[in-house]
């Protein structure tokens, strides 16, 4: 028998084996889900109808929208809105960390002050708080620096310090700090207490434990809700009219609308800018979550070479923040 014939027989034998009925053979097929496709088609049609109706509706006056979208006054309002958002959120973040640490303190005074701050600023409307900060110069005409319950060395006019912009910034920051502090506290408590104990056993101070052990792990829990708070704060800036602060985006667009008697297109201008800024914040949130989520996504990285001897001990101590 030639090799050619042997090859033909092998192919024929392999084909015969494939044609054999093997018992218990599983032919996996995806389960048909017609309901999902029907729902997707219905949702797609409704979305297309909604978009078509919004775009083609002449009452929205899209020409006016594009005319004022990049208006000089509108862009100035966008800038002030961003400044209020970033500034107040930065102040609130620092205060929230301090308040969260105070809530975990064993000192009754620190824990009580933190609890009262959170209770008060979460329990009263932000609009009411902004009105209060707008009237702070009436309630406290002067701010004095000196010995408590004693003579004052420096006395300043409150009206000169708490301008409308400063009052809006402080009012937003204090209100936001009350909410962020609970988020930070939840993140700190999510870290296993055993890691604190192990760090203390290594001789690390409380500050080093917080900065190098607790906070890096807690950020994975803190970032998502804190990012939502930042987006909410962006839209809360529209309430600073209560101070009154009249340079942010919502007030500027309302002023233009009242002047030209076209409220709907100017509302759309404000909405578009809020959506643009929110989209940018959401992109930043995604990168932050990815950064602080490293090591928790189930992916394993290549093991680093282990260093022995005095050099290895020094490097490990340096990574932990200890003095070798």
TrEMBL record:
Residue stretches making up the ABC transmembrane type-1 domain: 78-285
Coiled coil regions in record: none
Membrane topology: Multi-pass membrane protein
Region of interest (Disordered), ranges: 1-25
PROSITE patterns referenced in this protein's UniProt entry, alphabetically: ABC_TM1
Keywords: Amino-acid transport, Cell membrane, Membrane, Transmembrane, Transmembrane helix, Transport
Name the UniProt record assigns to this protein: ABC transporter, permease protein
Alphabetical list of CDD domains matching this protein: TM_PBP2 (cd06261)
Basic and acidic residues: compositionally biased ranges: 1-24
Family: Belongs to the binding-protein-dependent transport system permease family.
């Amino acid at each position: 028998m030639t090799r050619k014939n042997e090859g033909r027989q092998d192919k024929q034998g392999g084909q015969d084996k494939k044609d054999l009925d093997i018992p218990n053979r599983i032919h996996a097929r995806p389960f048909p889900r017609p309901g999902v496709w029907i729902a997707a088609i219905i949702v797609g049609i409704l979305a297309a109808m909604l978009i078509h109706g919004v775009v083609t509706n002449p009452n929205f006056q899209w020409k006016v929208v594009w005319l004022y979208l990049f208006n000089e006054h509108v862009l100035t309002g966008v800038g002030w809105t961003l400044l209020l958002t970033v500034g107040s959120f930065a102040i609130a973040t620092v205060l929230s960390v301090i308040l969260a640490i105070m809530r975990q303190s064993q000192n009754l005074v620190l824990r009580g002050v933190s609890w009262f701050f959170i209770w008060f600023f979460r329990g009263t409307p932000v609009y009411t708080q902004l009105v209060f900060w707008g009237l702070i110069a009436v309630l406290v005409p002067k701010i004095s620096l000196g010995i408590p319950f004693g003579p004052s060395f420096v006395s300043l006019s409150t009206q000169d310090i708490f301008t409308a912009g400063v009052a809006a910034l402080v009012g937003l920051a204090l209100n936001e700090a009350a909410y962020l502090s609970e988020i930070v506290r939840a993140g700190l408590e999510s870290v296993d207490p055993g890691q604190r104990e192990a760090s203390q056993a290594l001789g690390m101070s409380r500050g080093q434990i917080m900065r190098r052990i607790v906070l890096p792990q807690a950020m994975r829990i803190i970032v998502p809700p804190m990012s939502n708070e930042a987006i909410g704060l962006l839209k809360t800036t529209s309430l600073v009219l209560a101070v009154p602060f009249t340079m942010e985006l919502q007030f500027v667009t309302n002023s233009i609308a009242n002047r030209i008697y076209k409220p709907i297109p100017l509302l759309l201008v404000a909405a578009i800018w809020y959506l643009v800024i929110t989209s940018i914040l959401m992109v930043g949130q995604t990168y932050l979550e990815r950064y602080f989520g490293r090591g928790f996504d189930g992916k394993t990285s290549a093991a680093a070479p282990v260093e022995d001897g005095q050099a290895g001990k020094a490097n490990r101590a340096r990574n932990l923040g200890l003095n070798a």
